[in-house]
Each structure stands twice: as C-alpha cells, then as structure tokens.
Amino acid sequence: MGDWSDRHQQVTGTKLLTNCAFILCKGHPTPLDIVSITTASQQRIFSFLSLAWGFISDVDIESEKYRFMGYARFSVGTFVRLTALRTYRGRLSYLVSEEKDSASNIPEASNFGNRPSSDGVEPQVLEDSLLVPLDQPVPSHWHTIEDQFVLVLALYQSHLGAEYFTAPMVKGPAGGNIHLFYATSRISRTSLIKLFMAMEKGTHLDQEIPHLTHIPVAAFRIEPSENAGIMTVDGEVIECSPVQGQIHRGLGNVISIGQNA
User: Fold this and answer.
1) Which residues share a beta bridge with 35?
2) Which residues pair with 31 in a beta bridge?
3) Quick one: three-class SS letters along the chain?
4) What are phi and psi of 217, to 5 degrees?
5) Confidence (pLDDT) at 100
6) 134-149, pLDDT tens digit by residue?
7) pLDDT per residue over 86-122, tens digit each?
8) What number is the average pLDDT over the span 169-183?
9) Is the pLDDT at 230 greater than 60, yes or no?
10) CA-to-CA distance for 195 and 209, rounded, in angstroms?
11) Which of 219, 185, 213 lies closest to 89 in space, CA to CA?
12) Hey, which of 17, 149, 185, 226 would disulfide with 87, CB 3.0 to 4.6 Å?
C-alpha cells in the first residue's frame, strides 16, 4: 500500500457509483480509528470523522438551504455566520495524547460485536477505559477550560471536507489521535477568515492565528452551559448537551486508495 497522501484523482467524467467501484477494486482494507462518543441521554455513537460544536457545525447544517449552489454553499454559509458571529459558553476537558500520529504500528482491528464467535466464546465488550460517567467530574489529570467558545472541533482524519485539509499531520486513517481544535470568543473575524482560507491548503497551523488552539488528545468532554448551538457527529445533528468521547485505535476498517494497493 502506498502512502495515504498518494491518492487517485477522482475518475474523470464518471458517476459516483462507477467511481466507488473503481476505489473498491483498486484498494484494500486498512485499519481505521473509531471514536466512541457518549451523550447525556446515554446514547453511544461510533464516529469515524469528527464531532463539532459551534461555528463549524452551524455553517454545515445552516448552509443546507444553499445546497443547490454545490460546494459554494459552505463559503456562503461561512460569510453569513461571520456577519452574526455566535459564541457559546461551556466547559471543555481533555486528556492529552502521548501517541505520535502514524499510519504504522497500528494493531489489527479487533472484532467487536453482539454475535458469538465460531468457537462459542462471547465477543469482547468495547469499554471506554479513559472515561468516567458524564455525571461525574473528569479525572484530576485531565485539563479543563471554561470559556466562551466560537468553535470546538474534535477531528480524527486529515480532511474535514473535500476542501478542508484540517489536520495535515494525520498520515492515514489510523493516525492514532483525536485532533482537538478550539477557538474562544476573543478570536477576530479576520482571524477566522484567515483560518478557513489557509485550511484549504493545510497551512493554517503554520500561521499565527491568535486564540486558536490545537491539541492532540486521547479523550475529551464538552459540557455546554446551555443547550444552545448545533452539535454534530460526522455531519449529523445530535442533541446539544454534555458529550464525551475517546479514541479506539485501528478498531474499524476502510478501503485504502494507495497507488500500490
């Protein structure tokens, strides 16, 4: 398998189904990081891409009305939201990761499920060993910030979208970390514009953007002070309430599109 960065260009002039068939034939399964997310209502969600609260999820969901514009809807949605910038008070807690991002040395995905294995042994239960129940304080060795936030994003893959190279340090689908980004209310509109323009090429972390923070973490918790704002998991809306998650490295599988596959 070639490097994750060695990607095939989309098959020119073909429909989505043909393009997907091409990728399936050319690629092969490779481990994928999965994040186990728990909500205040005890819903458990297995996420492969991101959790967002604030500006990014607001733009994503509110720009649905501009879907007829194609990908330009996000630019329009960003402009609209910048003109009436929202902030959200809450508490953000996280456990700093000790892992380096790497596409190698990821263990083969475990086989978790509800069905007994062929030898009759009950399947292993996937436990979130880094997390405590949401009604309990986070462990004392976690870091906690209470502030007014413009955006909070937990991302596990290199791209947030086709045009957003948000985590350029991620070298494969099993990079090993949750990349936590957050911006407080002290960030300016100019800085936000600079952030999203630079994000198209993945150069935003090389620039000085005040009040934007990036931290690789193994687990996180978001506790909104009010049920305000839009919260999404993998682009789908969930209840805006306390939520937490931890990474399970190499748990899933994805079809690789490396050139040497």
Assistant:
1) 47, 247
2) 253
3) CCCCCCECCCCCCCCHHHHHHHHHHHCCEEEEEEEEEEECCCCEEEECCEEEEEHHHHHHHHHHHHHHHCCHHHHHHHHHHHHCCCCEEEEEEEEECCCCCCCCCCCCCCCCCCCCCCCCCCCCCCCCCCCCCCCCCCCCCCEEEEEEEEEEEEECCCCCECCECCCCCCCCCCCCCEEEEEEECCCCHHHHHHHHHHHCCCCHHHCCCCCEEEEEEEEEEEEECCCCCCEEECCEEECCCCEEEEEEEEEEEEECCECCC
4) -130, 165
5) 76
6) 999 999 999 999 999 9
7) 999 999 999 999 877 755 444 444 444 444 445 555 5
8) 89
9) yes
10) 7
11) 185
12) 185
Residue with tokens 């263990």: 107
| Residue that has been written with the tokens 């070298």 in this structure | 171
Find out whether 182 and 153 touch, Cβ atoms under 8 Å: yes
Q: In the numeric block, which tokens belong to residue 45?
A: 């969600």
pLDDT, average across residues 187-200: 91
Amino acid at position 226, single letter: E
Q: What gap in Å lies between CA 128 and CA 137, rounded to an integer?
A: 16
CA-closest candidate to residue 53, choices 148, 181, 147, 153? 153
251 close to 160: Cβ distance less than 8 angstroms = no
Q: Give CA–CA dist 245/99, Å, rounded.
A: 17
Residues sharing a CB contact under 8 Å with residue 8, sequence separation 6 or more, in sequence order = 22, 23, 26, 257, 259
Cβ–Cβ under 8 Å, residues 112 and 121:
no
Residue-wise pLDDT for 24-79, tens only, equals: 787 767 788 999 999 999 999 999 999 999 999 998 898 888 777 776 777 787 88
